[in-house]
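Problem 12. The chain below contains 114 residues. Write out its predicted structure in token notation.
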Amino acid sequence: MSVHAPTDGVTRTLLQENPSPAKGWKTVQTLVEIPRRRESGRHSHPGVEVGYIVRGDVSMEFDDGTTLRLRTGDPFFIPSDTIHNARNIGKVTTMMLSTYVVDETKPLVTTYTH
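Solution.
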């Protein structure tokens, strides 16, 4: 029996990256895919994330204890530097379109372990 980490198979494909109208910021758009029974892992972004569930069912879990149930067609918004985890709770690979407006001097994703 093989053992898989919770984040195995999760991908973030860069679709476009452009300067933001605000100096020192950039706009990044990605397609995030999370296989069944997998999760993004706890992470944050140095700016806002505006997202849309293209396909699938997600439990978006925040460190403050809040959880959002998101389904195909649902939009979502995550404030800057908010630690969150997207867990696929559906039957298909989840696809999320995420657009970020972030500090151009920082990495797009900062991961956290428990």
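Discussion. The first strand starts at residue 11 and ends at 19. Students who got a different answer should revisit the alignment rule from Section 12.3.
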